[in-house]
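About this split. The held-out portion is used to measure sequence recovery: a designer receives only the structure tokens and must propose an amino acid at every position. Recovery is the fraction of positions where the proposal matches the reference. Here is one held-out target exactly as it appears in the evaluation file.
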């Protein structure tokens, strides 16, 4: 009764305020995304304060006095925001703005919401247009690109300038499909970073995690892996940001000394778009610099020679980071400065957000890396977990992602590229999968160990395969099928062993494995996993990181209440496919 009374009174007061704002303006009050965000903030602030007052008053006084107190509080808050409503020109309509209960979004709008999803994987990037009508999400690709990796004399790097141009192109293509974009969200792979120099300029060619310096930093780091795991709970990998930064500082101290910030890749993109500095919490978890309590670890920073001030302030997923810079607005000829929302910016965390996970389910993200894990409420930091290669990464709403990283599809990508160059025409993944299937009927039994360091970044994938499996030597020149099958089998054995270890570490069985990423489109891979693990393999949504991205944008806009509600919307909206174990 109390909440209903206050909700009705709030809407009544807001409607009166709108009428006054309209009367005071010279023209019609127009809807804008600026207005939506400011109104969201005002409503949430007013509602929470007033409802808290009501609850306290209900305990101390009769209902009539608590109602009077709540009305007085609402009137004072609304009056103080009157000038803001007039300034932002937000059109309030009874059919598009409603104060909802706990199980519904805060706002319900008849207008279609358009969100630009920038989803960056280490293999490729994509810009996707997400449209939300209040019930379902429609997600479509508007631009896909690759080629942001480049090789310099010292090793692999990233071409940030090329990346920024591709993102701008994606925004322009999205605007060809809809009149306005209500928000932008960016997610990316973890561990890699870009430096911001003293003038505020971003480093144009940051190092790739497969650069040899990563291993050099890991080998020379003063803290043992066991101590690092105990302090951070994260996977201790040579590619972690902390080892990259340590190596950079040792090899050229001026690099750190002349920099004012270090930003993970999605954070660097957000900085380019808005000029705002922030460090997404889920990305920070991949750095090896974040303690279990969610703060930058002073002791690790000191050991690595990293000034604490170099690290950005941490931001929570689902918050508005800033707005598109005026320079970009003018360059792209946009009508408004689009808000940029900090999503779960690590693509792993974003993908997990996009999967409709339930109890006794695990996830497998098949991208350049394969990542297997499950959501847990408390970080698991046992020595057995560390020795088994597991770690904890950041989820949202208090969740932890307990997972293990495995070598992934980049081995098949390298094999495909190598063979395409050899035969002089493009070999598709489907063709390679068909050839592997044929090889399996011929009794080929070769299988690799993807964890072998030889497969970390092999310059010649065929040579690496034949050295690991001498029985494949006869196939190196003219038979792709057995080579591909050896990679498939190695990847699947890794998944099966990891799934057993995951159950052991979490003390809970896994009945279903939810798969997303490019590997989910490979029917042979998914069926082989189902057969080998004797689990149902549920694929979808394939682009789970993009679905998780838009889910967090909608939560940030106040249009979906929380992750549980978002997953219900995703399950209703996305294509889902099941693979069942076969004998």
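Reference sequence for scoring:
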């Amino acid at each position: 009764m109390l909440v209903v009374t206050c909700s009705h009174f709030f809407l009544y007061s807001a409607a009166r305020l709108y009428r006054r704002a309209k009367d005071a303006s010279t023209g019609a009050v127009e809807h804008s995304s600026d207005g939506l965000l400011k109104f969201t903030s005002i409503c949430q602030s007013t509602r929470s304060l007033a409802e808290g007052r009501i609850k306290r008053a209900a305990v101390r006084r009769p209902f009539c006095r608590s109602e009077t107190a709540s009305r007085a509080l609402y009137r004072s808050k609304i009056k103080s925001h009157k000038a803001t409503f007039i300034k932002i020109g937000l059109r309030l309509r009874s059919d598009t703005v409603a104060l909802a209960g706990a199980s519904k979004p805060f706002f319900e709008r008849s207008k279609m919401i358009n969100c630009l999803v920038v989803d960056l994987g280490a293999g490729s990037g994509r810009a996707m247009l997400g449209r939300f009508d209040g019930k379902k999400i429609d997600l479509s690709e508007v631009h896909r690109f690759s080629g942001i990796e480049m090789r310099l004399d010292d090793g692999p790097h990233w071409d940030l300038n090329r990346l920024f141009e591709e993102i701008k192109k994606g925004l322009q293509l999205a605007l060809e499909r809809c009149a306005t974009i209500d928000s932008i969200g960016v997610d990316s792979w973890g561990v890699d970073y870009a430096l911001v120099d003293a003038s505020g300029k971003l480093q144009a060619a940051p190092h790739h995690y497969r650069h040899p310096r990563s291993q050099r930093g890991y080998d020379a780091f003063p803290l043992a892996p066991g101590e690092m795991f105990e302090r951070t709970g994260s996977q201790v990998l040579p590619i972690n940001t902390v080892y990259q930064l340590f190596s950079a500082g040792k090899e050229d101290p001026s690099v750190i000394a002349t920099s004012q910030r270090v930003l993970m890749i999605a954070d660097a993109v957000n900085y380019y778009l808005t000029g705002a500095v922030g460090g997404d919490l889920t990305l920070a978890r991949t750095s090896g610099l974040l303690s279990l309590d969610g703060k930058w670890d002073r002791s690790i920073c000191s050991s690595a020679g990293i000034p604490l001030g170099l690290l950005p302030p941490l931001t929570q997923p689902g918050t508005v980071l800033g707005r598109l810079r005026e320079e970009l607005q003018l360059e792209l000829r946009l009508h408004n400065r689009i808000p940029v929302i900090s999503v779960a910016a690590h693509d792993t965390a974003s993908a997990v957000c996009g999967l409709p996970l339930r109890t006794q389910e695990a996830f497998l993200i098949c991208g350049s890396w394969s990542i297997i894990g499950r959501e847990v409420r408390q970080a698991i930091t046992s020595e057995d977990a560390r020795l088994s290669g597991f770690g904890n990464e950041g989820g949202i709403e208090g969740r932890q992602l307990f997972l293990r990283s495995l070598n992934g599809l980049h081995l098949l990508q390298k094999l495909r590229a190598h063979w395409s160059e050899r035969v002089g025409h493009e070999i598709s993944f489907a063709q390679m999968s068909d050839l592997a299937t044929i090889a399996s009927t011929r009794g080929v039994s070769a299988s690799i160990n993807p964890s072998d360091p030889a497969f970390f970044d092999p310059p010649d994938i065929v040579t690496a395969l034949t050295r690991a499996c001498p029985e494949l030597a006869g196939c190196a020149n003219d038979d792709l099928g057995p080579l591909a099958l050896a990679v498939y089998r190695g990847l699947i054995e890794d998944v099966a062993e990891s799934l057993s270890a995951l159950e052991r570490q979490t003390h809970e069985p896994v009945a279903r494995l939810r798969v997303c990423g490019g590997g989910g489109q490979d029917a042979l891979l998914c069926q082989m996993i189902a057969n080998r693990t004797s689990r149902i393999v549920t694929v979808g949504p394939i682009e789970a990181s993009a679905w998780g991205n838009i889910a967090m944008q909608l939560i940030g806009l106040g249009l979906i209440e929380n992750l549980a509600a978002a997953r219900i919307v995703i399950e209703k909206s996305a294509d889902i496919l099941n693979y069942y174990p076969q004998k």
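Annotator remark: Confidence is low (pLDDT under 50) at residues 1-109.
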